[in-house]
Design brief:
Low-confidence stretches: none
Mean pLDDT: 90
Number of helices: 4
CATH topology: Nucleotidyltransferase, domain 5
Radius of gyration: 14 Å
Shape: globular
Number of domains: 1
Helix content: 40-55%
CATH architecture: 2-Layer Sandwich
Length: 139
């Protein structure tokens, strides 16, 4: 089963797609768009191109577990995606994902400018990795 993880942002949305076995991340990219409808359209194109069967959307809870404006925005985007793609969307707790992505890129010698271009895709890959690990452990 091919799974797509999405790190939805105001201007940049990270995408990571698993291999067909749903074991590892096999593809990642960033969608640069401001309007939710534009992002959803680009995601639908990728869903078709990669034969994605399930979507996982980063759900940015506050550090204390409460829901703030970013989580509400993600939940609204999840509804738009369900309608546009016709696929199930799982909301995935993504606390610290972007921080971890920045740290990974910094540790690999990426300067701030280079990190900005790839951090969202790395964050999506971390979301995907966490989700796929959970699914494996549930089997």
């Amino acid at each position: 089963m091919t799974v797509m993880a999405i790190d939805y942002g105001d201007a940049h949305t990270g995408i990571a797609i698993s291999d067909r076995t749903g074991t590892i991340a096999g593809f990642s990219t960033t969608i640069d768009a401001y309007r939710a409808e534009q992002v959803a359209d680009a995601i639908v194109r990728l869903v078709r191109e990669h034969e994605v069967e399930e979507l996982v959307l980063g759900y940015p809870k506050n550090m204390d577990g409460t829901l703030g404006p970013r989580a509400e925005k993600a939940a609204s985007f999840a509804e738009l995606l369900r309608e546009a793609a016709g696929l199930p969307v799982t909301l995935w707790d993504e606390r610290r994902t972007t921080v971890d992505a920045h740290n990974i890129l910094l540790a690999n010698g990426k300067n701030a400018k280079k990190r900005k271009k790839t951090v969202d895709a790395v964050a999506a890959a971390l979301i995907l990795e966490g989700y796929l690990t959970k699914k494996r452990l549930e089997r």
